[in-house]
Amino acid sequence: MQGDKEVLRALNKVLGQSLIAINQYFLHARIAKNWGIEELNEAFYKQSIAEMKWSDALIERILLLEGLPNLQEYGKLFIGEDVAEMIECNVRLEDQKFATITESIALCEQKQDYVSRKLLLDLKDGNEEYSDWLDTQQDLVEAMGLENYIQAKIDD
């Protein structure tokens, strides 16, 4: 089934954001693990795996539409050097992804590609859930202080 070229470009743009997220969240997970902050390691790792599954779904959709998934054009990873910065970097990426996904959903509606739109809506829902979690973590850091927050996240 031949897909619309603009939709394929949009899907590839979302795929690029998801590929960035896989790597960024995975690296943040391993940094947290190295620091002994197991709860953050698990949360970041889980999100990295979710992004991998979403990327897989996007790749399958692009191939079904007879497009070529672009796995070569990575954007910039935002890597934090401390816990608060890692959370902030992930918030920044989620905001960037949200804008890309929202634009792509609108394009799919315009082009009447409702299957791609549904896929993107599912992705958006998952990203909003993770964004809410990140916002909560930022609120906890602010309320507790960074040192107390980290202490609470260390697995005994």
From TrEMBL:
It is an enzyme of class 1 (oxidoreductase). Heme b binds at residue 52. GO terms for molecular function: ferric iron binding; ferroxidase activity; heme binding. GO terms for biological process: intracellular iron ion homeostasis; iron ion transport. It comes from the Bacteria. Its EC number is 1.16.3.1. Transmembrane segments: none annotated. Its cofactor is heme b. Pfam families: Ferritin. Fe cation 1 binds at residue 51. GO terms for cellular component: cytosol. Fe cation 2 binds at residues 51, 94. The keyword Transport does not apply. Keywords: Heme, Iron, Iron storage, Metal-binding, Oxidoreductase. The keyword Manganese does not apply. PANTHER family: BACTERIOFERRITIN (PTHR30295:SF0). Belongs to the bacterioferritin family. Iron-storage protein, whose ferroxidase center binds Fe(2+), oxidizes it using dioxygen to Fe(3+), and participates in the subsequent Fe(3+) oxide mineral core formation within the central cavity of the BFR protein shell. This is Bacterioferritin. The gene is bfr_2.
